[in-house]
Amino acid sequence: MARPISFPGSSRSCLARVQDGYGIRRDDLVQEVPRSAFPDADKLEVGMQFTAQSDRGALPVVVTGLTPDTVTVDGNHPLAGQVLHFAVDIADVREATPEELAHGHVHGPD
């Protein structure tokens, strides 16, 4: 039997390139919207998140700026444009179940 790539108690780290993570930041997903477009504009705060309707359907956005007349919203994922660094500790290693092999993904704890 081949030696497993990882074993319980081992650690691994890896990087995910921008294009393999949340993609590049897109300037077209940052927009200034008139405050009048918001029913409760006086309650808006930077960092608030909500769903906006776009030509592609629902789009989660975050408020990134406020002026007396406009609200700046950003539809980019917060990690867009970033290389992702993962560090994991291996707790356990087991064979995939036939169901997991058929579905192509893990189904969780035993």
UniProtKB/TrEMBL annotation:
<keyword id="KW-0413">Isomerase</keyword>
<comment type="similarity">
    <text>Belongs to the FKBP-type PPIase family.</text>
</comment>
<keyword id="KW-0143">Chaperone</keyword>
<dbReference type="GO" id="GO:0005737">
    <property type="term" value="C:cytoplasm"/>
</dbReference>
<dbReference type="GO" id="GO:0003755">
    <property type="term" value="F:peptidyl-prolyl cis-trans isomerase activity"/>
</dbReference>
<keyword id="KW-0963">Cytoplasm</keyword>
<keyword id="KW-0697">Rotamase</keyword>
<dbReference type="InterPro" id="IPR046357">
    <property type="entry name" value="PPIase_dom_sf"/>
</dbReference>
<protein>
    <recommendedName>
        <fullName>peptidylprolyl isomerase</fullName>
        <ecNumber>5.2.1.8</ecNumber>
    </recommendedName>
</protein>
